[in-house]
Amino acid sequence: MKTFIHLCALLCSAFIFAQVETSAYGFKENYGPSVDYLVNQNKKTTEGSPYLYETWDNESKVYFEEKAYIFKSFNYNAHVGQFEAKLSKDSVFVINPSGVDKVVLGNRVFKQYLDPENNKKAYFEEILKSRDFLLLRKYYTKIKKAKVNPLTKTPEGLPILELEEQCYVLKGESTQLEKISLKKSSVLELIDEKVVKEVQSYVKKNKLKYGNIEDVARILEYYNTIAS
After folding, report:
1. In this predicted structure, what is the pLDDT of residue 28?
2. Contact (Cβ atoms closer than 8 angstroms) between residue 113 and residue 170
3. pTM above 0.85, yes or no
């Protein structure tokens, strides 16, 4: 019975929001727009998708009050920053973030941190842990307006919902996230100057790119192995 109560607390039916008004792009501005996205499938108001994965065939574990709940059909809605589980063809449930310790989606770990953009908790993907810092990534969406026909002055097609990402770093004992750009100078600032040259040699030898998050993770993992 206790497990059932926990599961009910974890899952918040998305369909309770079905009567809310939507924005011009088919999404409600606050919590619960995933329903609007489903409701508007028959009348598309945007191109693109708010979801991190193209399909729902993603196994996940949601750690809630020291228990792990497994979902076979799972996705992340970057437009509103919430995880959603599809329990049947027509039933999508929002994961209530309250009490969630972490979400493991495939081999990716997501935890909640204070978002410096709005001073509210949000999900961030943990890319790499170091003794000195934690590298994180946040997913979000932006709406790109459709091109306007210069003659008729009318849009050619629908606005496009685009998936974006931003990296952050959490240093030492600080609780304040800092934005970090994926460029050479920013990455090397995280590294002890005593081993910078050695790290640069590793980057050159392995043809790694500072602008690629996977390569940056490799660079910082190497740094962790040589840092004294």
Report:
1. 32
2. yes
3. no
pLDDT at 140 over 80: yes
CB 132 within 8 A of CB 171: yes
pLDDT at 99: 87
Helices (H) and strands (E) in the chain, counts: 5, 12
Whose tokens are 């489903």? That residue is 38
**Residue (of 51, 87, 52, 54) closest to 70 by Cα position:** 87
Q: Which residues contact 137 (CB under 8 A, 6 or more apart)?
A: 124, 125, 127, 165, 166, 167, 168, 213
Q: Which residues contact 109 (CB under 8 A, 6 or more apart)?
A: 102, 103, 125, 126
**How far, in Å, CA of 150 to CA of 107, rounded?**
47
Select from 74, 88, 89, 162 the least CA-distant residue to 123. 74
Give the pLDDT of residue 174: 80
Q: What are phi and psi of 163, to 5 degrees?
A: -85, 130
Q: Which ranges of the chain does DSSP label H, i.e. alpha helix?
A: 2-10, 33-39, 184-188, 196-205, 213-226
Q: At what angle do helices 196-205 and 213-226 cross, to 10 degrees?
A: 130
Q: Are 223 and 132 in contact (CB under 8 A)?
A: no
More reliable by pLDDT, 175 or 186? 186
Residue 26 host element (H or E): none
